[in-house]
Design goal:
Blueprint: E1 3-8, H1 19-28, E2 31-36, H2 41-53, E3 58-62, H3 74-84, E4 89-98, H4 106-123, E5 127-132, H5 135-142, E6 152-154, H6 161-169, E7 173-176, H7 187-192, E8 201-203, H8 229-240, H9 244-259
Parallel strand pairs: 1-2, 2-3, 3-4, 4-5, 5-6, 6-7, 7-8
Helix pairs in contact: 2-3, 3-4, 4-5
């Protein structure tokens, strides 16, 4: 299979000792392309540099996660704009709202989100979106501008049927992670899997987080890796009632279309 992991935190320090081996293991499992997530000014720079070192294999996003929204400033905005002009960078984000942890004040989160949506509009790039416990404000900010943006993905979707409908109505792609493999937290997502149109689903690991709990052989370190994208694919295919090969082909085609990958 030719799979694309659309969200992996490959610059995370847990990969510092074996990053090349992690990439090789993913490639051996059919995960030939990955999009490295930027979530702060520094991690976005690191992601862009890493992606540029492996053209055709790695790509990057550049953005400020809501946890870091209090750090947003005109200088940071300018730094992101420069990164978004790099060939290796294919999306704005990870950006959005997170009222679950509230690591940044909510008003700062909303302002940083709006600013990054403006960057997406200015650059023609899609948005890599984060939302947790902030659905109403998220939709209120996104809906008026989404038609002026080239596209977007609801990264690590964990919402309910109402959220799924609203995101699909806005034309968003739905990002499926190892959350679907959780025997408790993933119940609702598995139930919703048949309702996600095949032309709107993409898959991601969010590694090193969200290790699929359905893996037969559990890694001793409990670190997730992009090679485990195959397990996300398997469980989503099972929940949706569709053959793995069909889902694999669709998710790859969707990722290529959303992020303009070649």
């Amino acid at each position: 299979m030719d799979l694309i992991d659309i969200g992996v935190n490959l610059t995370h320090d847990s990969f510092d000792e074996d990053r090349e081996a992690v990439i090789a293991r993913a490639d051996a499992c059919g995960v030939h392309r990955m999009i490295v997530t930027g979530s702060s000014e520094q991690s976005s720079l690191d992601a862009a540099v890493l992606a540029a070192s492996r053209p055709g294999c790695l790509y990057a996003t550049a953005g400020i996660h809501p946890h870091h929204a209090a750090e947003y400033s005109p200088r940071v905005n300018d730094a992101l704009l420069r990164l978004l002009r790099e060939d290796s960078v294919v999306a704005v984000g990870e950006c959005g709202l997170d009222y679950f942890r509230d690591f940044s004040p909510r008003q700062a989160q909303r302002e940083a989100f709006r600013a990054q949506l403006e960057l997406a509009e200015a650059t023609g790039l899609p948005v890599f979106l984060h939302q947790r416990d902030a659905h109403a404000d998220f939709v209120e900010i996104l809906r008026p501008v989404i038609d002026r943006i080239s596209g977007g993905v609801a990264h690590c979707f964990t919402g309910d049927a109402v959220a799924l409908r609203e995101y699909l109505d806005m034309g968003l792609y739905i990002g499926i992670t190892g959350w679907i493999c959780d025997e408790r937290r993933g119940i609702e997502l598995r139930r919703l899997a048949p309702d996600i149109p095949l032309d709107r689903v993409v898959i991601e690991t969010d590694a090193p987080y969200l290790l699929p709990r359905t893996l037969k052989a559990k890694p001793a370190a409990r670190r997730n890796e992009p090679m485990h994208l195959c397990e996300v694919l398997r469980v989503f295919s099972e929940a949706s009632g569709l053959p793995e090969e069909r889902v694999a082909n669709a998710t790859t085609r969707n990722a290529e279309q959303l992020f303009g990958l070649r």
